[in-house]
């Protein structure tokens, strides 16, 4: 597998020296946000991670390689090109073999990070069990990846385009720790709180790093989730955004959207229906996750 890795020199050096590195996904750039906010977000997230003293490693598939650490030109390509594939686990081999350009989801960013030896990955929200899954069987491959790949994912919970309580049940079944960072309840992406109580709460980045160390030493080989609430000054009104999401879900059904197109469709619809308000919140929560994720990665590197 390593023959397919193309690790940027700065990232390789940081890893060799045991310095903190934070992985970032690229589907959020190519399929999760409109241009030009997507590329601006991608650059700013990297800058925040650097300010915190860690090295960012945005991951994507390009030229038959799993690229770990991208240039500004690579970010621009992912943000603007029309034929960027959304690459989940099942797509990985084909897109590499065809030497196409592909954006990595949470699942494939975890795979790449793990291959490169990066234990931390920052994003906005993960995929999960979709509403109406009883009919569609739409459960994101992100959850299966979390069950088998030992990377800690820092996110702002999941948005209620998903069935949040069932997503939590699935995570429990698969043995995936969900740590509330200074929260008792699952954050719901656009809002800092949901109705769903978590099993575990942590107060500090050091506690998270210590748990990760034990988990790796035990060889548990599962990932974990750190759920970090959106700062309250940036959150949206719960009733307002729930209504918008419900409307987006109905429109997806009407339009006959299925499979990998579902999440990007819903994200786009929500941006449209909120007149861009949801995008602002989305960007701010990613920045907040980058700050916390870099601090956890630093605490972890100081333990080793
Ligand atoms: N949630 C977001 N923004 C995103 C995604 C999810 O708020 O960009 C992306 C992530 O890359 C995630 C993927 O891994 O969607 C999940 O897609 P699916 O539901 O098709 O598994
Ligand atoms: Mn799906």
Characteristics:
binds pseudouridine-5'-monophosphate; 304 residues; binds manganese (II) ion; eleven-stranded mixed beta sheet; Indigoidine synthase fold; globular; 13 helices; alpha/beta
Give structural notes:
- It contains 13 helices and eleven strands.
- The chain is of the alpha/beta class and 304 residues long.
- The protein has a single domain, classed as Indigoidine synthase domain (Indigoidine synthase fold, 3-Layer(aba) Sandwich).
- Strands 1, 2, 3, 4, 5, 6, 7, 8, 9, 10 and 11 form an eleven-stranded mixed β-sheet that branches.
- Strand 5, helix 5 (92-97) and strand 6 (102-104) form a beta-alpha-beta unit.
- Helix 3 packs parallel to helix 13 and helix 11 packs across helix 12 (262-273).
- The radius of gyration is 18 Å and the shape is globular.
- The model has no long low-confidence stretch (mean pLDDT 97).
- The chain binds pseudouridine-5'-monophosphate and manganese (II) ion (MN).
- Pseudouridine-5'-monophosphate binds next to helix 2, helix 8 and helix 12.
